[in-house]
Amino acid sequence: MRFAAAAPEPAFPTLHDEPEVAAGAALTSASNGAGPSAPASAASSLLADLAGEAQRIRAHNAQMQRGERAVRTEAEQALATRLVLVRDYLTQFAGQLNVIKPQIARDYPLLGLGVLRGLAWQASDVNTRNRGPEAPDQLARVSLAWLLRGQALMRCEREPQAASALRVALREHGLRFEEQASRDEQNRLRAQVFDIAPEVRGRVELNADYTRLTLRLTLQNVERFGIVDYQPPSEDNGTEWLDELAKLILGQPSRFAALARLIVPTPQ
């Protein structure tokens, strides 16, 4: 007895059927010479326009930065050139005065103790400092220091309680002095006696700020004891302001204060 064959069950595709079809499609595509599809960005005119505009802006900014750097470099070089001019001027000025040793037409009142007068030029020297590794060939500071000397010592007395303040003030002004104790008959300390050398140490110092592109001129013990800061005039004045500064140092009539701008200290 023969049984009828069972009806075949419906077949479902397996997972490996799809890749085989895809592989066949890829082979067909390759045989037809078709390449991979191009990315959407390559065909976008909008992205191309944006890329071109961005490139133009980058080029413009780079050009502006190069221009700004060129302008700043030129300004820094002009500042350095001014310091070279000042160095050369002060070097000649000091060299001549070290030979002539002129009398200085100025008296120096000293803390209410008296007046230093009859001073003459003794010696001077010029010093410089360069900017450093960023620009070793450019000057950052030029200074002239000098010594004036008179004939007679100045003697004064101070009570022991006031002697310390006078001692500090004399040192701040760069004055040489000697002191000794004065005692009464009972050997009690009566006062401190100061013998002050008839000398004045003066100084002018020009500093360049290459960040702000400015100059600051510091005068110490020039017109009087103490320190004063000025901003020199523009370079259009050439050496005129240096001539007036030299006259000021020598105690001669000078227009320096009219040419330079006094820098008023900011209260702390």
Describe the model:
Residues about 1-30 have low confidence and may be disordered. This protein has two domains: about 65-150 and about 200-265; about 155-195, no CATH class. It contains five helices and eleven strands, in the order ααβββββαβββββααβ. The protein has about 270 residues and is an alpha+beta fold. The longest helix has about 55 residues, at about 45-100. The strands form three sheets. Strands 3-4-8-9-10-11 form a six-stranded antiparallel sheet. Strands 5-7-6 form a three-stranded antiparallel sheet, with helices on one face. Strands 1-2 form a two-stranded antiparallel ribbon. It has helices spanning about 15-30, 45-100, 160-170, 240-250, 255-260, and strands at about 110, 115, 120-130, 140-150, 155-160, 175-185, 190-195, 200-210, 215-220, 225-230, 260-265. It is elongated and about 110 Å long.
What does this entry show, briefly?
37% of the residues lie in helices and 28% in strands. The chain has 268 residues and is of the alpha+beta class.
Number of domains: 2
E-strand count: 11
> What structural category do the secondary elements indicate?
alpha+beta
Beta-strand residue percentage: 25-35%
| Strand order in the largest sheet | 3-4-8-9-10-11
Poorly predicted regions are 1-31
By DSSP (H or I, 4+ residues per run), the number of helices equals 5
The 3D shape can be described as elongated
What letter string, H or E per element, gives the SSE order?
HHEEEEEHEEEEEHHE
Largest sheet: 6 strands, antiparallel
* End-to-end distance: 123 Å
Radius of gyration: 42 Å
Compute the average pLDDT: 84
Q: Helical amount among residues, as a percent range? A: 25-40%
